[in-house]
Amino acid sequence: MKALIKEKPEQGLRLADVPEPSIGPGDVLIKVLRTGICGTDLHIRAWDGWAQQAIRTPLVVGHEFVGDVVAIGRDVVDVAVGDRVSGEGHLVCGKCRNCQAGRRHLCRATVGLGVGRDGAFAEYVALPSANVWVHRVPVDLDIAAIFDPFGNAVHTALSFPLVGEDVLITGAGPIGLMAAAVARHAGARHVAITDVSEERLELARKIGVSLALDAKDATIADGQRELGLREGFDVGLEMSGRPEAMRDMIANMTHGGRIAMLGLPAQEFAVDWARVVTSMLTVKGIYGREMFETWYAMSVLLEGGLDLAPVITGRYGYRDFEAAFTDAASGKGGKVILDWTA
């Protein structure tokens, strides 16, 4: 089968012929239809410091996908051949304290699809049936392909109640944009988002945010004044991993405000912890999705009319992966999709 692989410990990816994956008694084999390009995939392609530490070559990359089940192991009972599915890319041990307590998203032994084992940028991918989400309600293929990052957005956005609240999102990348759409749909009063890309801010305006603020030209305090907020933002969603964004967010939260932090910083940075304490702020780290409560919430949100179409800005056949990755790495658009049927 054709697959995108990180063949050697160097920059770049290669489209190559590799063996079709085999499945065990509890696994399913999925014919991949569409995949989404994630920031993780960009790191692997660039072969940066993180990738050099995390990746062992050769490796089939990719973890955002939708496809059809074509074979199941003998012990699989809840997934059938012909089911349309997406995959939870965090494979957990099932034996640690958190797994046994039903908190699988907190497993300390998590292995990432397309990071710690062969992934989904291929014509076929194998997964344990416990990591498969069956789409019981019809969903657009492009949207189904990005259920993994959509889950990150939903997990972050719904960490705290949003109805009637003023929400600040720092970082208008694809997940920040999806989180903005979720916050609007969930009943936030104001949704403000910051970024340094005018193209991404324009996407945020299409989604319907109250304010899209260019962080090169204005501060969050400026945004507060423009929205007429007197006491600060109630909920903050930090999506950028940028030190200055986190610091500015903390400085503009109301007393008792709550921050969910998904953006992953490149290195340690200082935070005004005195302000966190004296303003009685809550800061919660987010990694991945709750299995599978977040997935249920995603499906319900889409059934309820949540529109993610503006977030997808690039579509390519898998053979044009170089152009697709260049588009995704530009920092100017939303999600980029690879079509594995083209």
Task: Summarize this structure as a short list of keywords or feature phrases.
12 helices, ADH_Zn_CS, single chain, 2 domains, metal-binding, 342 residues, Rossmann fold, oxidoreductase, 6-stranded parallel β-sheet, Quinone Oxidoreductase, Chain A, domain 1, 7-stranded mixed β-sheet, alpha/beta
Question: Roughly how many Å apart are the termini?
Answer: 14 Å
Q: From the alpha-carbon coordinates, what is the Rg to the nearest angstrom? A: 20 Å
CATH class of the largest domain: Alpha Beta
Identify the CATH homologous superfamily of the largest domain.
Answer: Medium-chain alcohol dehydrogenases, catalytic domain
| CATH architecture verdict of the largest domain | Alpha-Beta Complex
Detailed description of the structure:
The chain has 12 helices and 18 strands. By secondary structure, it is α/β, with parallel strands linked by helices. The chain folds into 2 domains: 177 residues, Alpha-Beta Complex (Quinone Oxidoreductase, Chain A, domain 1), CATH 3.90.180; 134 residues, NAD(P)-binding Rossmann-like Domain (Rossmann fold, 3-Layer(aba) Sandwich). Strands 3, 5, 6, 9, 10, 17 and 18 form a 7-stranded mixed β-sheet that branches. The two termini are 14 Å apart. Keywords: Cytoplasm, Metal-binding, NAD, Oxidoreductase, Zinc. It catalyses: 2-deoxy-scyllo-inosamine + NADP(+) = 3-amino-2,3-dideoxy-scyllo-inosose + NADPH + H(+); L-threonine + NAD(+) = (2S)-2-amino-3-oxobutanoate + NADH + H(+); 2-deoxy-scyllo-inosamine + NAD(+) = 3-amino-2,3-dideoxy-scyllo-inosose + NADH + H(+). It is found in: Cytoplasm. Pfam families: ADH_N, ADH_zinc_N.
